[in-house]
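Appendix B, record 7
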Amino acid sequence: MKLNRVIISGGGTGGHIFPAIAIANELKTRNPNINILFVGAIGKMEMEKVPQAGYAIQGLPISGFQRKFTFSNFLLPFKLIWSMIRAVRILQKFKPEVAIGVGGYASGPTLRAASFLGIPTIIQEQNSFPGKTNRILSKKAKAICTAYEGLEAYFPKDVIHLTGNPVRKEVVQTAGKKAEAITHFGLNNEHKTLLIIGGSLGARTLNQAVLHQLKTLSSSPIQVIWQCGSYYYEEMVASLSKTNNDTIHLLKFIDRMDLAYAAADCIVSRAGAISVSELCIIGKPIILVPSPNVADDHQTKNALALVQKDAAKMLKDSEAIEELIPQALNLMNDDALQGQLSLSIQQLAKPNASQDIVNVIEQTVNIK
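Structure tokens (predicted):
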């Protein structure tokens, strides 16, 4: 017996969408004839990214609570009720054998509706600190796939499976690519390389930290691959043009993250769950600067999970402008610390997360 019909729900950010697609791809690899339907939130990026990956998706009119006063907040109860009704109808028509939630607005109504209809539900929790929705949904979930240890405080212990987060394979395949990376980014093979990444939209604090220490970087025997993000790119170009620095390679977006990882000796990054999972597999020394602008301060908790195992250094966002570059330079000059961090973080890597999650899915619905 094989799985025939599966619902995968969630999205909102790449951190939810990419794992969902990775799970779908693994299911498809094992059973090319499987029918997979995604359920997302209308207007969110999954409605575009999922079809691009080759999968069907239907949308729910669900949205999140806005911290500022807006009329849309008054509509939330009605959107939630309508989303539940819509989710029930989708499930009744599609008749899945299992519903998988990856986090994001749509997963709440979808998994609640699945439980109401007696359909087994599975949660894939990316963070070290679960959000409220997943904590509620976990009470009826048949299995919960986690990326971090110690989540027994939030989920029923007997349904937890430590699988890791699915990552994009093409991003973490860096072996033997150093020479190609040097050429791709126009780097000097004799200099050490610092990679600074703040996400596709960029991170203001990381950018300000680099600008604040441009003179220091210019006088240091290192080179920098700096992804500043599309939102800040023009501003950063203007600031960098005022210097004679030719060792900082400014990019709006890195389209070959595998080569950026391959080129790097040390890495500075935010601490989103999927980024952290990628970095564990890459195994390079890292400094994490958690974003303060995420729900439940997830990124700080993700970073601390590594720091507590001596697998990363962490710097608060409020300290980064003054301290980030000096600490990064100290790390790049400390071979012993680099070796220790690299060894520790590699031990946390879960490179087979997609396969392990699908194993749990198949076990949960008794697939032989």
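Remarks on this record: The domain at 170-346 is CATH 3.40.50.2000 (Rossmann fold). The mean pLDDT is 92.
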